[in-house]
């Protein structure tokens, strides 16, 4: 289920342009608009929810699928040397988009 007020739902629906690098029935991967590393991708489920704590069995299956696809997507998009995954959860983590997303950072030696 998508959300009318969510920027990532709008990207999934094609209402906001994005640089897509991978898509299937469950997920979309696109380039972050303000990259924090040489390669900075965002992997999102095609289901609007904010937190891992909201993941029922279907959402957990989608997240598992995403984790199984990310290694090849990362390798094909400049992260053959390695990458870091980050999932910000809530205010203290600085989550700014309330549609669960996995940051994929790489393409260089990360500074921390
Ligand atoms: P968060 O801080 O919620 O973990 O990360 C949200 C990320 O979404 C940020 O890195 C931000 O640059 C990215 N972002 C926000 N709006 C857009 C957008 O319209 N397009 C794209 N491609 N990325 C976005
Ligand atoms: Zn959304």
The percent of residues in helical segments reads 10-25%
**In angstroms, what separates the terminal alpha carbons?**
36 Å
The average pLDDT value, as a whole number, equals 97
- Helix vs. strand class: alpha+beta
- What is the tally of helical segments? 2
Plain-language structure description:
The structure is a single chain. The protein is of the alpha+beta class. The chain has 2 helices and 5 strands. A hairpin with a 7-residue loop joins strand 2 (about 25-30) and strand 3. The chain is globular and about 35 Å long. The protein starts with 6 loop residues before the first helix and ends in a 6-residue tail after the last strand. The relative contact order is 0.23. The mean pLDDT is about 95. The protein binds guanosine-5'-monophosphate and zinc ion. The site of zinc ion (ZN) has 7 residues, from helix 1. Zinc ion binds next to helix 1.
Can you summarize this structure?
The chain has 112 residues and is of the alpha+beta class.
Topology:
Layout: H1 7-13, E1 20-23, E2 27-31, E3 39-45, H2 57-76, E4 83-86, E5 102-106
Antiparallel strand pairs: 1-2, 2-3, 3-5, 4-5
